[in-house]
Design a protein that fits this description.
Elements lengths: L2 H16 L7 E5 L11 E7 L17 E7 L2 E7 L10 H4 L1 H8 L4 E10 L9 E9 L27 H14 L4 E7 L8 H9 L4 E3 L3 H9 L3 E11 L10 H25 L1
Parallel strand pairs: 1-4, 1-5, 5-9, 6-7, 7-8
Antiparallel strand pairs: 2-3, 3-4, 5-8, 6-9
Amino acid sequence: MKYHELVQQSAAYIQEKLGKIQAESTGLVTGTGLGGLTDAIDSQTALSYGEIPGFPVSTVASHKGRLVAGEIHGRPVIALHGRVHLYEGFDARQVTHAVRTLGELGVRTLILTNAAGALNPSFATGSPMLIEDHINLTGATPLRGHNHDPWGDRFPDMCHVYDPALRQLAVDKALALGIRLERGVYMQVPGPNMETPAETRMYRAMGADAIGMSTCMEAIAARHMDMRLLGISCLTNKNLPDCMQEASLAQVIAQAQQSASAMTTLITAILKEI
């Protein structure tokens, strides 16, 4: 079966089990430790990834692997509670299968969240960071291979990956709510190892403000399908190359969970206006 047919099979199953997804639904992808964002969804119906044909299932304990549909403040939302990563052994197309499925279901606006390490020394740990642009340093792309023309052009433009109007909305809402919102460039590396001090200096010199192991693949696939994108990172630790401290997965998850309240408040406020 061809890749686009697998995605269509997944979408058809979801429609069969959950009913027709509203065309104006906003998609939401929750990152490491941020699964609690789905608690804000009212009137939930859910499917586990394992029961959806073609869906890859995460091997990371902090990613529950559920698709959740419902409403936030009366606005229809369909959320991916957890994601899969390149470092788990999945290829770029498998990593973006779920986002492609949202596109097939009619989602035109997507909010991507992740847990990331701050590279910019002025950024505050625990704060959300608005992703203004990204650097894909994985050497991978979900667009490699045959292009399915109904999804998008073979060579999609990437001048404005993250929608300027949505970014401004996020800034306005954060200001109104009194939430400190950093703004910067996110870099994706393959993982799963953390960065060395020398790598941290290099990544910062390349223009990155935060670093993680997800998101860019999904953003590329979503833009290929002409979705409007908003990206927000939760800065769970700070990489200072001259005084590097260990950052275990448990610490990253704990900090993300502590910061989830501010992230939820901000994202729900944004959803009211989308």
